[in-house]
Amino acid sequence: MDIWLVPAAIVFFVLLSSFFTCSETALFSLSRIDQAKLKNHPRASCRLAAELLRDPQKLLTTILMGNEIADIISSGLTSWFFLKTFGPYGKWLAYPLITAVLFVWGDLFPKVLGLKFREKAACLLSRPLLAAEILLAPLRILLLSLAQTIFRVFGLTTVSPKSVTAEEEIKHLVEKAYLSGALGPQERLFIYSLFESEETPVSAIMTPRKDIFALEDQKITENLLHTLKEIPFHKIPIYREHLDKVVGILYVQDLLKARLHTEIHKLSELSRPAFFVPEKTRVRKLLEEFQRRRIKMALVVDEYGHISGLVTLEDVLEELFGEIYQARESKEPLIEKLGEGIYRVKGRVQIEDFNRETGAHLPAEGFRTMAGLALHLFQELPKEGDEAKGYGFRFQVEKIQKNRIESLIVERLEGDEAHL
Question: Are 140 and 65 in contact (CB under 8 A)?
Answer without folding.
Answer: yes
